[in-house]
Amino acid sequence: MNHLRGESSFMTKNPHLITDFLRERGVRFDLSKGEEGELVLIFGVVAKPGGRQSKMMVTNEGDLAIQVTARAVDGAANKAIIKLLARGLGVAASRVELVSGQRGKQKRIAIHYIFSDHKNENFFLKKIKESLL
């Protein structure tokens, strides 16, 4: 993957609605070049397994803090984090990639957005706004 920090000119669609909102909320991310028409955002994630409820928030450092009820046993917490991110950010779980941190609390997770007429930037932005506390 070619990592491009803050560059979006490679996109066939304009992802500025999404990236600008994330920057305004203080979320740190890297952009990575994916397939044509695909936006790949890579987030730092702080995993919080075994919580009372599942939720997603932004830390003071700009990472996503993901609290899930699943315990960190046999990958259950990682699966729950992927499911929560997918649902909250409007993508299928197959579009969420655990890049690093499989066994730790600090993770890097890539979200692969594919734009279409039905699922455009506004669709994904609405999902992101609804999910970030």
What does this protein structure show overall?
- The chain has 133 residues and is of the alpha+beta class.
- It has one domain (3-131): 2-Layer Sandwich (Conserved Hypothetical Protein Mth637, Chain: A).
- Helix content is 26%, strand content 30%.
- Helix 1 runs parallel beside helix 3 (121-131).
- It is globular and about 40 Å long.
- The protein starts with a strand and ends with a helix.
- The model is unreliable at 1-12 (pLDDT under 50).
Strands, helices and their partners?
Blueprint: E1 3-4, H1 16-24, E2 29-33, E3 38-48, E4 55-58, E5 64-67, H2 76-89, E6 96-100, E7 106-114, H3 121-131
Parallel strand pairs: 3-5
Antiparallel strand pairs: 1-2, 2-3, 3-7, 4-5, 6-7
Summarize this structure briefly.
With 133 residues, the protein is an alpha+beta fold. 26% of the residues lie in helices and 30% in strands. The chain has 3 helices and 7 strands; from the N terminus they run E-H-E-E-E-E-H-E-E-H.
Classification by helices and strands: alpha+beta
Distance between the termini: 30 Å
Give helix and strand order, one letter per element, not per position: EHEEEEHEEH
> What is the correct CATH architecture?
2-Layer Sandwich
Salient structural properties:
alpha+beta; Conserved Hypothetical Protein Mth637, Chain: A; 3 helices; 26% helix; 30% strand
